[in-house]
Amino acid sequence: MGTIAAAIAALVAGIAVASDDDAPIRYHRHGMTVIMRSSMTPINVVLGDNPLDKPHTFTCKSASGCVVLISSSNVQMGTDGTETCSFVDGTPAAPGCVGDFVAPPVVRQQQTKVSQGQHTLQTIVHSLNAGGQITGWQVAYTIYERKVHGTN
Predict the structure, then answer these.
(1) Which of 19, 30, 123, 124 is the most buried (most CB within 10 A)?
(2) How far is Cα 145 from Cα 67, in angstroms, rounded to an integer?
(3) For the segment 21-68, what is each residue's pLDDT rounded down to a tens digit?
């Protein structure tokens, strides 16, 4: 019985210190790239921009361009006047940025098309007021290479 309790305690201790604050997870296969990032490290909200992640660069190789789908969520405590928005090359992805007027968690789905070449992705919580925290977040950027017409 003592051995089981010790094993459970060791497992729980390992879970308590586990974190996803490491480098982003990247997956690429058959014309699709996924960049995933998450963190449970609290972010103290300041007036202005509060980046959830660092800018991520990718190269769209298709002459027909790429489609970028962005899924993000975050949990805010004690914040007021925030809007969560994902940007591609510094421009908000569709449908644009709207206020976070919902109970936690804040969930956003955005998308855009880009041309062939190098691009930058980033998700930010913009705040009109200082105070409160973002207690956890996740972002997944999925990039699809568009098929060049006349090819298989």
Answers:
(1) 123
(2) 7
(3) 666 777 767 889 999 999 999 999 999 999 999 999 999 999 999 999
